[in-house]
């Protein structure tokens, strides 16, 4: 089975967390924590800084590691390293690849249709 290693940012602003809705691919319409594939030679933190700049046009401060999620999708195995982040440059995220986005309060985390791997991240956030 194909293996994909990615990073995801749990972007925080106070008690709210930023969620994005996929605008492409077989998982179009599902919600996720933004991020993407790691490139050769990158640390997870470097990959996350690059991906969030490419997807949302923001600079972030990568903070505490939350969890690594392992999940089998039908076509591939996903390893996703998740870190808390804050926006460093004060800019609002721009949706360059996503269909929609929301800032979710803790009580709203289950109000969107998360991708299966991202549900595990929500559970890790709630366990904190």
Provide a descriptive summary of the structure in words.
It is a single chain. This protein is α+β, with helices and mostly antiparallel strands and 128 residues long. It has helices at 44-56, 116-127; strands at 2-13, 16-22, 31-32, 35-37, 60-72, 76-87, 98-104. It has 2 helices and 7 strands, in the order E-E-E-E-H-E-E-E-H. The longest helix has 13 residues, at 44-56. The model has no long low-confidence stretch (mean pLDDT 97).
Question: Notable features of this structure?
Answer:
Nucleoside Triphosphate Pyrophosphohydrolase; 7 strands; single chain; 2 helices; alpha+beta; 7-stranded mixed beta sheet; 128 residues
What name does the CATH topology carry? Nucleoside Triphosphate Pyrophosphohydrolase
Task: List low-confidence stretches.
Answer: none
H/E element order: EEEEHEEEH
Instruction: For the record, give the distance between the C-alpha atoms at the N and C termini, rounded to a whole number.
Output: 32 Å
What helical percentage do the residues reach?
A: 10-25%
Instruction: Name the average pLDDT.
Output: 97
- Counting DSSP H or I runs of 4 or more residues, the number of helices is 2
How would you characterize the largest beta sheet? 7 strands, mixed
Radius of gyration, CA atoms, in whole angstroms: 13 Å
Shape: globular
Q: How many domains, in number, for the residues? A: 1
**CATH classification class:** Alpha Beta
């Amino acid at each position: 089975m194909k293996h994909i290693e990615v990073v995801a940012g749990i972007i925080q602003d106070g008690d709210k967390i930023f969620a994005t809705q996929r605008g492409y691919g077989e998982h179009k319409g599902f919600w996720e924590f933004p991020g993407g594939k790691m490139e050769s030679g990158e640390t997870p933190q470097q990959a996350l800084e690059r991906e969030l700049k490419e997807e949302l046009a923001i600079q972030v401060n990568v903070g505490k590691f939350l969890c690594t999620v392992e999940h089998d999708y039908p076509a591939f195995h996903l390893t996703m390293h998740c870190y808390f982040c804050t926006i460093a440059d004060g800019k609002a995220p721009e949706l360059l690849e996503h269909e929609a986005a929301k800032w979710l309060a803790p009580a709203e985390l289950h109000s969107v249709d998360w991708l299966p791997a991202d549900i595990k991240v929500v559970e890790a956030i709630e366990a904190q």
